[in-house]
Amino acid sequence: MKQDLKNFTQEQLREIFKTGGFAHYRAKQIFAWIYKRRVEDFESMTDLSKDAREFLKKNFFVSQLELQNKETSRDGTEKFLFGLDDGSAIETVLIPEGTRHTLCISSQVGCKFKCTFCMSGQGGLKRNLEVSEIINQYLYVVDLISPKEITNIVFMGVGEPLDNFENVLKAIKILMNSSGVSFVKRRICISTCGLIPEIKKLIELNLGVKLSISLHSADEDIRSKIMPVNKKYPLGELLPTLKAFSKKERYPVTFEYVLIKDLNTSKGDAIKLAKLLSGVRSKLNLIIYNASFLKYRPPPKEQIDIFTAELKKRGVFFTLRKSKGQDISAACGQLRAHWQKGA
Ligand code: SAH
After folding, report:
1. How many angstroms separate the CA atoms of 113 and 159, rounded?
2. Which residues of the chain fall short of a pLDDT of 70?
């Protein structure tokens, strides 16, 4: 059976070519065609020998995503809905901000972590995305906006990227590969609800990716209530792991903290947060909750003021923002993989 070429890293292709009796540098040439020149038709890969092209045609195909729908927000944010072969769909969001173009990528169809405030997990997990399905989100959008470039990639769409570790890792290796896209280190960010074993694997790999933690509470009990993953991987164990990450990568960890009415925005919550952050090199992003049909609401201005005043008093730096793309449900946590056509 033919395989999707975009599922393979360059090292893997090298091995496949070697085994097929071809020179290993063919893999590098193919990477340049597909990821740099954006040519996907084997016949047009003119510096490959005829035999090599035949080998490719016989064993591989090159997939593309099918766009089902695209919406543009008043603030310029664009949301793409892509249909997959099995009838599932995934969402990708492009966020333009001045000269920056950030692409928010999905890593799974659905999510199994069931954070109570988040739409993405409401239907559970259907499946992991293939490497090619991750890469193709990037390739589709970069082709579309060319000659403008995507400057940042964040794994903040649907799914938990560290729960699809192998495929996300391969996709990152492909994106960073210097014969292809050559995406800049530190401009790729993995966002996680806090899977400790996989963060430890990242520490070992030392890839140069940024790490963002969906924190949302510095209190073990509150966090366990809204993020069940905290029962398995509590803050008490997560924090030392994050310290080790920022030490090894020589880079601060980012904490995302969604402000939710009457839940995590009291003065006491701010004090706990300041304490937690004091031990780790980090950045803090406060995000005002996006309301949906779930029971949670954004806090009133007074709650936000009390919370942020306490942080300032304690010398904690932060950014405070509303998510972009709210009018098209492209804002943080509002993405939802459709696990059936038309669902
Ligand atoms: N599973 C990963 C990647 C998802 S990123 C993670 O947890 O980090 C999506 C981000 O949006 C997460 O930080 C999530 O907690 C946040 N989020 C979920 N629902 C939200 C909402 N309604 N408003 C604002 N942020 C939300």
Report:
1. 9
2. 338-343
pLDDT for 248-278, tens place per residue? 999 999 999 999 999 999 999 999 999 999 9
Domain 3-61 identical in fold to domain 66-342: no
CA of 145 to the centre of ligand 1 (A): 26
pLDDT of residue 50: 95
Which atom from ligand 1 is nearest to the alpha carbon of 216? 15
Report the nearest atom of ligand 1 relative to the CA of 294: 22
Q: What is the pLDDT of residues 214-247, one digit of tens each?
A: 999 999 999 999 999 999 999 999 999 999 999 9
Residue 133 appears among annotated catalytic residues: no
**What pLDDT does residue 343 have?**
44
The topology under which CATH files domain 3-61 is DNA polymerase; domain 1 (1.10.150)
Name the one residue in this structure whose structure tokens are 């540098």: 25
Q: Where are the domains of the chain?
A: 3-61, 66-342
Cα-based angle 138, 139, 145 (whole degrees, multiple of 5): 90
User: How many angstroms is it from 333 CA to the middle of ligand 1?
Assistant: 4
pLDDT of 214: 98
Q: Out of 78, 91, 130, 133, which one is annotated catalytic? A: 91
Compute the C-alpha angle 319/258/200, nearest 5°.
90
Residue 91 annotated to the active site: yes
**Substitution candidate for ligand 1 out of 199, 222, 255, 258 with most atoms within 8 A of CB:** 258
* Pick from 231, 293, 221: nearest CA to 264: 221
Instruction: Identify the CATH number of the domain defined by range 66-342.
Output: 3.20.20.70
